[in-house]
């Protein structure tokens, strides 16, 4: 429980909100329940991640540049490691 409180403090959650959240989840402590209470108070999630909400388009160009569909990696890369 101390590690949860430490993490909440590290994420700039107000002390009174930490107390409120810990009282609300005391019999059902889980990452999902804590994040749910955080969101109800207007904070972002701290313990869980919604991968469906991520925008991966910023990574598309990075990986497409390094790969040539005709024969694998583009010339110039050392295939022998």
| Assembly state (oligomeric) | single chain
Q: Which radius of gyration do the C-alpha atoms yield?
A: 21 Å
* Count of strand segments: 2
Shape: elongated
Mean pLDDT: 82
Low-confidence stretches: none
Identify the strand order in the major beta sheet. 1-2
- Helical stretch count? 4
Main sheet attributes: strand count, strand direction, barrel closure: 2 strands, antiparallel
Following the backbone from N to C, one meets helices and strands in this order, namely: HHHHEE
**In angstroms, what separates the terminal alpha carbons?**
46 Å
Strand content: under 5%
Instruction: Please identify the structural class as seen in this structure.
Output: mainly alpha
The helical percent reads 40-55%
């Amino acid at each position: 429980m101390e590690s949860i409180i430490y993490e909440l403090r590290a994420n700039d959650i107000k002390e009174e909100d930490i107390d409120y959240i810990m009282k609300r989840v005391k019999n059902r402590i889980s990452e999902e329940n804590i994040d749910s209470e955080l969101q109800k108070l207007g904070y972002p999630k701290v313990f869980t991640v919604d991968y469906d909400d991520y925008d991966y388009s910023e990574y598309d160009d990075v990986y497409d540049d390094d790969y040539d569909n005709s024969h694998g990696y583009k010339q110039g890369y050392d295939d022998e490691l």
